[in-house]
């Protein structure tokens, strides 16, 4: 019965007190291991530097294979942690996104290409971009809302509002990355199928100025005009497409590295520490 007393006291503690107790036990457990911890930190820094060099060289020399492997890991790695940690809310959104995007990719890679497919692909990924951008901004505002203490006026706990902000920010950035990468794959396949662009070969068709490079239909709205249903966008290559914000694109690149490659790098570090007998 005496052995159960500490366990009962731990159950009566608040979340903050319990976390503090566990933190103190961790310090007691690893006391006197400063040299070992310094070794582990050096291994972590060295692995991060080497991994960064390898990834940069891979991306510069073989960009297409790098993007494909990164996209595959972006798709699979969160699924592993979702199932392991029982994040059913993320799993449900991930499942819906995966099913619809798989169908869109299937339609975009068919030959011959339907005249309605490019418009469907464009609208779907434009919707993903707008939703992810909006959710990410709301999540960021919720985090700032909590950091400045405005949650007190609405009687919302800081932990709850911060959790909501972080989750929404992650959702916005993650699906923004996935949508942009899949949109590039679909656009490459469709452009090659239509004939205005052919990877590694000459294009088989010429593009008129009043024809959309995505769907091949006639353009009725000029670039400078505001359309009723759709607007016309023009890039520096004179092709029409939606133009994303530069800073938002950099955030998506950062998240791609964090989600796709960081777990693998941490796994390599754990493997090295285990082989050297470090704890």
From TrEMBL:
<keyword id="KW-0812">Transmembrane</keyword>
<feature type="transmembrane region" description="Helical">
    <location>
        <begin position="87"/>
        <end position="106"/>
    </location>
</feature>
<feature type="transmembrane region" description="Helical">
    <location>
        <begin position="127"/>
        <end position="154"/>
    </location>
</feature>
<feature type="transmembrane region" description="Helical">
    <location>
        <begin position="65"/>
        <end position="81"/>
    </location>
</feature>
<dbReference type="InterPro" id="IPR040176">
    <property type="entry name" value="RNF121/RNF175"/>
</dbReference>
<keyword id="KW-1133">Transmembrane helix</keyword>
<protein>
    <submittedName>
        <fullName>RING finger protein 175 isoform X1</fullName>
    </submittedName>
</protein>
<dbReference type="GO" id="GO:0046872">
    <property type="term" value="F:metal ion binding"/>
</dbReference>
<keyword id="KW-0479">Metal-binding</keyword>
<dbReference type="GO" id="GO:0016020">
    <property type="term" value="C:membrane"/>
</dbReference>
<keyword id="KW-0472">Membrane</keyword>
<feature type="transmembrane region" description="Helical">
    <location>
        <begin position="40"/>
        <end position="58"/>
    </location>
</feature>
């Amino acid at each position: 019965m005496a052995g159960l007393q500490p366990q009962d006291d731990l159950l009566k503690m608040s979340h903050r007190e319990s976390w503090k107790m566990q933190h103190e036990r961790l310090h007691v457990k690893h006391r006197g291991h400063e040299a070992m911890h310094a070794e582990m930190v050096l291994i972590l820094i060295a692995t991060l530097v080497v991994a960064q060099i390898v990834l940069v060289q891979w991306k510069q020399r073989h960009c297409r294979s790098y993007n494909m492997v990164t996209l595959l890991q972006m798709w699979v790695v969160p699924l592993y942690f979702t199932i392991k940690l029982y994040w059913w809310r993320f799993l449900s959104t991930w499942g819906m996104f995966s099913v619809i995007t798989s169908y869109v990719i299937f339609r975009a890679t068919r030959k011959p290409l339907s005249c309605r497919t490019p418009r469907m692909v464009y609208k779907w990924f434009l919707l993903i971009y707008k939703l992810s951008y909006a959710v990410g901004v709301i999540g960021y505002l919720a985090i700032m809302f909590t950091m400045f203490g405005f949650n007190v006026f609405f009687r919302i706990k800081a932990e709850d509002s911060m959790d909501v902000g972080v989750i929404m920010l992650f959702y916005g950035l993650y699906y923004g990355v996935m949508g942009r990468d899949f949109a590039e794959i679909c656009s490459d396949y469709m452009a090659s199928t239509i004939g205005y662009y052919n990877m590694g070969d000459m294009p088989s068709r010429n593009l008129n100025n009043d024809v959309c490079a995505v769907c091949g239909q006639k353009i009725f709205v000029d670039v400078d005009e505001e359309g009723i249903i759709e607007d016309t966008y023009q890039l520096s290559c004179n092709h029409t497409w939606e133009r994303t914000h530069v800073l938002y694109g950099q955030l998506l690149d950062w998240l791609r590295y964090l989600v796709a490659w960081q777990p693998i790098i941490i796994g390599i570090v754990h493997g090295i520490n285990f082989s050297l007998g470090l704890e």
